[in-house]
Design brief:
There is one protein chain. With about 150 residues, this protein is of the alpha+beta class. About 15% of the residues lie in helices and about 40% in strands. It is built from three helices and eight strands, in the order αββαββββαββ. The N terminus is likely disordered.
């Protein structure tokens, strides 16, 4: 009986290794002009996405996944494991490391930003629907920074 326990534990560990409960979504961010921090947010909340102006990077209600990484000029890709659903993607490039998207006195961004579907907003960020992706299988999405 005592030899049976390690066998069962081993089978449980092997069978659960590599189990993914979602879909692999690769997000590639292109046109990074300078070194800095790249903030990638994946939102499942329309309200959270449409109210976020990049005042502060990092976790927040309505952001189901995300990443803050050091980026160099060019492009970067990262894989996210997401359950099926609809998500908006928002990215900003924090060049000076102050954890926010800097804007001028009119509110126009002075640092790079981008959205899912290469969406563009008028007088602000695009709508959740314009920046949204539907996850139902493994996929790759590209965000081009402006």
């Amino acid at each position: 009986m005592r030899n049976f326990r390690p066998l069962v534990l081993g089978l449980v560990l092997v069978s659960s290794a590599g189990v993914s409960w979602g879909h692999n979504v690769t997000i590639t961010v292109e046109n990074i002009s300078k070194a800095g921090e790249l903030h990638i947010g994946i939102y499942d909340s329309k309200e959270a996405f449409e109210q976020d102006r990049g005042e502060q990077g990092g976790p927040a209600p309505g952001i189901v996944d995300g990443l803050i990484i050091t980026a160099t000029p060019g492009k970067v890709s990262h894989d996210f494991d997401l359950p099926a659903g609809t998500y908006a993607i928002g990215v900003f490039h924090d060049v000076n490391g102050n954890n926010s998207l800097d804007t001028n006195f009119l509110g126009i961004p002075k640092e790079q930003y981008g959205f899912g579907n290469d969406a563009i907003g008028r007088f602000g960020p695009p709508s959740f629907n314009d920046a949204a992706i539907t996850v139902s299988k493994d996929a790759t999405h590209t965000v081009i920074l402006r």
